[in-house]
Every structure is written in structure tokens, then in C-alpha cells.
Amino acid sequence: MSREVAVELTNMCVVCDGTRVLVQDRAKPGWSGITFPGGHVEPGESITASVIREVKEETGLTIESPKLCGVKDWMREDGSRYMVLLFKAEKFSGSLAPSREGNVFWAERSQLPHMNLARSMRETIEVLLDDTLSELYYTVYSQITDGSHWVLQ
User: Fold this and answer.
1) What distance in Å separates the CA atoms of residue 100 and residue 133, rounded to the nearest whole number?
2) Residue 63 phi, psi (nearest 5)
């Protein structure tokens, strides 16, 4: 039996500035609401380079030394795996600028639970901001929308 599985690699990054975090109000139908910047890892691109590029494209900021702090993943119905590599960055330069993905702005960490979060962001925030957690795994792909079948590890 082969252990090879097709994987789609993506990233997401929480950019921190003291008690504030950079959020994105996504305009994408099907996954709108407050999230953090991120996107796909392109073929031939390093994972770290991909998160630096995505944050720049979506926010106008250039992050430095992003740290991998967790993984969000699930198996798709076709047997492939979807992985979101979760990063945290505290060093950045540049000026905020919105993109076609949505508007970006600084928010207090304490206000995140009260915001209009995109689907699955409540548990994603836990992994990004809690140093004792490293993975958010959805055990049933079709249940991602209601969050009833996920495991924080």
C-alpha cells in the first residue's frame, strides 16, 4: 500500500504588534469574514517564502522571520489532504494596503472572539495564539462548516 497522498499546501500568518493583530476582512464568497492573511504555496517556492509573499500581496507589509507555530489540516473526500501551515510574525515593515482579497486592519487580540470571523477561524486562532497547541485537525471534511468534528492537539 502506497503512503503517498496528494497534498495542497497553503499558509496563514498572524502578524502581531504588541496586543494588536493584523486581520483581513475577506470579501471572497464562500469564505468571507475576519481571518489572517495567507494563501497557496507555489510550485518550487519554499514554505517560508510563500508566507512572506502572501502577507506582502494581501497587506502591503513585509514580514521578517515568520515562525511556524502550527498546522491546520484535513482529508478531502477525494483522498487528498489540505494543509494550512500556520505562522506568527512580530517583525514587519511597510504600510498597510488592502488587496482584492479584502480590507486589512489592526485589531486587539481580545476583540477577535467578538468579530465576524470567517468559518473555522475560532479554533484556528486558538492554535495560532496558544503556544501549547500545534495542530487543528478536522476528522470529517464535510463537517468543517459547523466545527463539530475537529481536534485541537
Assistant:
1) 32
2) -90, 155
14: amino acid identity, one letter: V
6 contacts 76 by C-beta, under 8 angstroms: no
pLDDT given at position 141? 54
Can you list the positions of beta strands (E) in the chain? 7-17, 20-26, 33-35, 38-40, 61-64, 67-75, 81-89, 91-94, 102-108, 135-138, 150-152
For 77-107, the pLDDT digits (tens) are 888 999 999 999 999 999 999 999 999 999 9
Q: How far is CA 123 from CA 14, 69, 96, 131, in A?
A: 14, 14, 26, 14
Q: Which domains does the chain have, with CATH numbers?
A: 7-152 (3.90.79.10)
> Regarding beta strands 135-138 and 67-75, do their DSSP bridges make them parallel or antiparallel, or are they unpaired?
parallel
3-class DSSP assignment, residue 138: strand
pLDDT in tens, 108-136: 999 999 999 998 899 999 999 899 999 99
Q: Is-contact 60 96, C-beta < 8 A?
A: yes
Cα 15 to Cα 65, 129, 150: the distances in Å are 11, 11, 25
